Amino acid sequence: MDRKKILGFEFTGKDGEFKLQQPDHSSFLYFPLVNEGGMMSTVTPKFHGQATTGHNTFLTPPLSVEDLHNSRASRNFWVYVEGKGAWSAAGNSAKQNAAFYTPSADDAVLEAGFLWHRVTRSNSEMGVKAEITSFVPSGNDKVELMKVTLTNTGTEELTLTPTAVVPLYARSADDLRDHRHVTSLLNRIYTSPYGVEVQPALSFDERGHRINHTSYGVFGAEGDGSQPVGFFPIQEEFIGEGGSLDWPEAVILNTTPEIGKGGGVDREGYEAVGGLRFAPITLSPGENHSYVVVMAIDSDRINVEAMMGKYGTSEAFDHLLEETKAFWADKVNMVEFHTGDSNADQWMKWVTIQPVLRRLYGNSFLPYHDYGRGGRGWRDLWQDCLALLIMEPAEVRSLLFNNYAGVRIDGSNATIIGQQPGEFIADRNNIPRVWMDHGAWPFLTTMLYLDQSGDLDFLLQEQTYFRDTFMSRCKERDTSWDTSAGSDLRTASGEIYKGTILEHILLQNLVPFFNVGEHNNILLEGADWNDGLDMGADRGESVAFTSFYASNLLDISRMLRTLKTSKGQETVELAEEMQLLLDTLNESVDYSSVSGKHERLDRYYAAAPNKVSGVHVSLDIDKVADDLEQKAEWLFDHLRSNEWVQSENGDGWFNGYYNNDGEQVEGEFFEGVRMTLTGQVFPLMGHAAAPEQIPHIIAAVDRNLFDDKIGYRLNSRFGGIQQNLGRAFGFAFGHKENGAMFSHMTIMYGNALYKRGYVKEGHKVLESLYSLSTDFEKARIYPGIPEYINEQGRGMYTYLTGSASWLLLTMVTEVFGVKGKLGDLLLEPKLVKEQFDSEGKASIKTIFADREFEVVYKATGSFNYGEYQIYSVTLNGGEVTLQRGSGSVIIPREELLALQTEKLHVIEVTLA
């Protein structure tokens, strides 16, 4: 083998299937296996990884990414070949690892798709080939399945003794270091005719000492359902004195299991292992034999007979595999792209599934688990909905509605999110923390929903507010708060208070307007989108998100005017306390006065501490819209006048931050240029950047942040640790939030450029990210977007990143220009020459108005954006009523609703 030649993955089918030669020659590779029932697994080319249903219920030992190649614990399947010795079908033995760099090493090929994983491994000296396929069945059972097929590839008969072995950790991740041995004393280990089961007596973790009911098991059968012949349930007995999981005595010496086929022997107080010995078999040349291994977690003792009846044969495995493939294909294929690059189209399928994976895994439970104990954050709730609006739009209205229940009356929000939609949990640890950007995202997502649906009535639906001990954006505590009263905001009379969704939106954007630092930008507080900027809570300011909030205020103002013209809404009903924030309606505040803003905010906090009067006032909708517009325009003038950095090179950019010493962060200093991409994205994405400023920003980004090797850096090199700004600058430059290519912000930069009409530049940004992610020799990741690209070009934190939602959104609504406009369908393509195929076509399949559409663009003249216009549009071959705009057309929603729901409708757009 030529280890110097690195072959990347190649797509082999139309549903994202790909193949990778010698996958175990690349470190840190892992693949997700998951279902909607709560089973969350990870598998590597050598079948390391973990299987869990949550932080406190790991079937296998919890792993971080470094453990993937350092740990000896894995799903393993051993073959003792008579006359030749032991061989791991998973490639995970001390002998095989030692032979890794020699000609006698195994040949391995990985194949994978949605969401299944297969490695075919062969060794000519042993004369054996093993094909191991893994998946988590779609549905609600918390199981992971593995089928192993052994084939004699030699010229003589082989006698094989197979042994499946999976370590049974069976407890909380907290016990991996603390109390590892003590918690093993809780283990109650059982054997049955099919395998080994562990049900610890207690749960011994941060929740206290509780009676445990959860059970964990490893079971197996031959392909025809035949049971194993014996078991090794105790890890230390399986590996032997001086042995290890990658060279266990029971396999190397081919010892007979002490516990035979009948099982039923109970053991207590030891580390467990699911060691399953199968009967010896003799294979003729070319002959094969299969085995099925079932890993399961249940809420009580496992019904083994029923489980093996459902999963324990090759026939059942193959049927469920096809069922699972179809389940995921149906999800992914709700959105499909056809361009001039078929590989990019297939790659986008993996991007499409990433938001679903994050919804199921949360921010944890894959090997890069630096985000903690599981679940999603506030920001994730809204950004994941961006993708759901495109993939599963029917679910989004209720999700959005439920999410708004997490808003506090002070404009902040709950930070601990429960398992159920709309479930928000009070912070029992009393950790005061506010991310200043949290209030900005809900309106962006809601506006997308309104444009897709036209459902303006959503804004007038009433929802509760969240309440806990924190008040005034965590600056004060409510000592009167009684946890037994729940987490709903109440009125002075004790009734649960509700306000419209519009009221929630206004609060989230009005409160920050007054919550400013000494330079009159919104305070950074705990951090903004960049969690690494977490050390500027006193005097730090986020100019970047001041731009975002300013744009929101203007867009909310316009939305209010639309409510009036479209629905005849003359007034808005709001909590009476909010009149203080709509200052121009009564007692105006001098917006240039920081102290004036603070005084008004303090008055609001005092009026609505952790309860409200419950009285609603009816305000003139035009006056409210005027108030918001005045605030927005003041902010735009302020940002353009005070936060613009004029470079000596002739270009310029926006300062994005002030640090905790009140110093401007960005600019040209004696020690060099300091610049952030975040500081440019939000002025561009909204309205803050004036049209004449945009070319200067692009030039400055290209000069200061673009790197041919790793793309668009999140920031330039600042130098020093920056303890007055955040922990991010303690990271090495070029890694994570300190100067890496952070996919999320890079894609939002591309999105902003498309929105502002800079299509060529936007395409360059997206193409850069695609090229980096698919350069396997450097990135070493499977298809999809990583969270970031590090200094060496390696993709990091694969699968669980909000950037996937943003790329999907950008491709659908900006590149292909398929978007809503208050319920109508707007077509505004921004395709470039490279995105048309050889016949001049580019197409997208997506959902709109609960119907499936394929929008086909056909260029008959120039393929360059800006040189073509929409010449004609047909729907299912017939003419369609259109409203023409500049480079766009609108198809009224009523025409779409007249179409059948069960068929694919084709919209053909001729560009000339």
UniProtKB/TrEMBL annotation:
Pfam families: GH94_b-supersand, Glyco_hydro_94. Residues 327-817 form the Glycosyl hydrolase 94 catalytic domain. Residues 100-312 form the Glycosyl hydrolase 94 supersandwich domain. SUPFAM superfamilies: Galactose mutarotase-like (SSF74650), Six-hairpin glycosidases (SSF48208). Keywords: Glycosyltransferase, Transferase. The keyword Protein biosynthesis does not apply. This is Cellobiose phosphorylase. It comes from Paenibacillus pseudetheri.
